[in-house]
């Protein structure tokens, strides 16, 4: 029996559930895979059992009927996993399936999950604000459309010339598709057609675009801040080294009894720092 035939030399077996998920979506990135699965697993019983759907809407949907419902902070997240019908979830998950992995591979899973849920939450929050200010009437908001539109906005900014086929027939750059969707949503909102849903779409797209602009600026600010801290530390080390050299010259010339309490404290500080650096090595 060869080495690679031995049990301990082989990869640990996956659980049957984990292997099933991997086989179900073999080329899909981890967060996208779980988003697809969770949406479908929640939709199926809510589609088949009206009482379950009603229960989900009561406790998980964005439902700004009173202040008590508005302060339930989980709703802008959980409403994204509820859908009102087959075509609602089908088109949302179709876009997630094709565009989600592209962004997750660019950003990494953690950052992608934050972005996706944040864009969706922006839609729920804007709808609630519009109800509070009596721009829109109270209703039940469900669906991942805000998050999906955020993905489209991000894709249009990062990959503006990416060719997509609308309805599988009409080719156009992703940036053009995003602009058309914005125009369509604005016209529907102003015309009162699914105004709450269109507000969520626009909020998701705006959140996605703002994030794409804001994140590089924050990254540069963070790098600049870190560089400033490092430079400050280097300057401090340089000043300490020069001061220690001066004190040692004084000890050599006049003896240690000639040092002031401040100079002794500086030597003690330098010794402690040197010992700390030695322990790191």
Alpha plus pi helix count: 11
**Radius of gyration, whole Å:** 29 Å
Beta-strand percentage?
Answer: under 5%
- Biggest beta sheet summary: 2 strands, antiparallel
Order of the strands making up the biggest sheet: 1-2
Q: Name the poorly predicted regions.
A: 1-15
Q: What is the CATH level 1 assignment of the largest domain? A: Mainly Alpha
What's the CATH superfamily of the largest domain, by name?
Rhomboid-like
CATH topology of the largest domain: Rhomboid-like fold
Distance between the termini: 44 Å
Portion of residues in helices?
A: over 70%
Please write out the topology:
Elements lengths: L15 H9 L5 H19 L1 H11 L6 H4 L4 H4 L7 H22 L1 H24 L12 H14 L4 E4 L3 E4 H18 L3 H60 L6 H20 L1
Antiparallel strand pairs: 1-2
Helix pairs in contact: 2-3, 2-6, 6-7, 6-8, 7-8, 7-10, 8-9, 8-10, 9-10, 10-11
């Amino acid at each position: 029996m060869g080495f690679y035939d031995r049990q301990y030399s082989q990869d640990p077996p996956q659980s049957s559930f984990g292997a099933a998920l991997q086989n179900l979506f073999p080329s899909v990135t981890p967060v996208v895979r779980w988003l697809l699965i969770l949406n479908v697993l929640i939709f199926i019983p809510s589609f088949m059992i009206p009482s379950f759907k009603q229960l989900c809407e009561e406790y998980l949907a964005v439902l700004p009927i009173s202040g008590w419902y508005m302060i339930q902070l989980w709703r802008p997240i959980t409403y994204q996993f509820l859908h009102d019908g087959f075509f609602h979830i089908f088109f949302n998950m179709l876009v997630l399936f094709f565009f989600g992995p592209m962004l997750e591979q660019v950003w990494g899973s953690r950052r992608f999950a934050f972005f996706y849920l944040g864009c969706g939450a922006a839609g729920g929050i804007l709808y609630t604000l519009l109800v509070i200010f009596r721009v829109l009437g109270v209703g039940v908001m469900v669906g991942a459309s805000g998050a999906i539109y955020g993905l489209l906005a991000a894709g249009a900014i990062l990959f503006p010339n990416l060719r997509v086929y609308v309805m599988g027939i009409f080719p156009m750059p992703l940036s053009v598709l995003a602009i058309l969707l914005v125009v369509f949503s604005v016209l529907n909102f102003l015309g009162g057609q699914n105004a709450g849903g269109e507000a969520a779409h626009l909020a998701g797209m705006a959140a996605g675009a703002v994030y794409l602009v804001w994140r590089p600026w924050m990254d540069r600010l963070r790098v600049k801040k870190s560089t400033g801290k490092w430079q400050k530390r280097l300057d401090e080390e340089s000043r300490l080294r020069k001061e220690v050299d001066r004190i040692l010259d004084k000890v050599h010339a006049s003896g240690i009894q000639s040092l002031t309490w401040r100079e002794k404290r500086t030597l003690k500080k330098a010794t402690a720092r040197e010992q700390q650096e030695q322990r790191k090595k």
